[in-house]
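Researcher: Structure prediction, please.
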Amino acid sequence: MALVTVKTKYQVTLPTAVRKQAGLAVGDILEAKVEGKKITLTPKRLLDRELALALEDVKRGRVSPTFSSAAAGLRWLHAEVRKIKAKKKAKKLA
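Model: Predicted structure follows.
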């Protein structure tokens, strides 16, 4: 059993043996669950992380519409770029 200390900013460092046994690397995502007074950290796959990011985009409305053709998609993209440029120009003038 490995013991860790909670630091001043509530950070903990996982001992090398624990990280190796769990196959963790820098940047890996861990899910933290609390059950009573017990905290469980579970490594999550990249797919889980990508899915979570994609779902967050959907929640915030950061999605594009569907298009009937590639040309329609390009028209929409060009219009979005024009809107962004117009906003930037308006900010500079303000």
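Model: The chain has two domains: 1-63, 68-94.
Researcher: Thanks, that helps.
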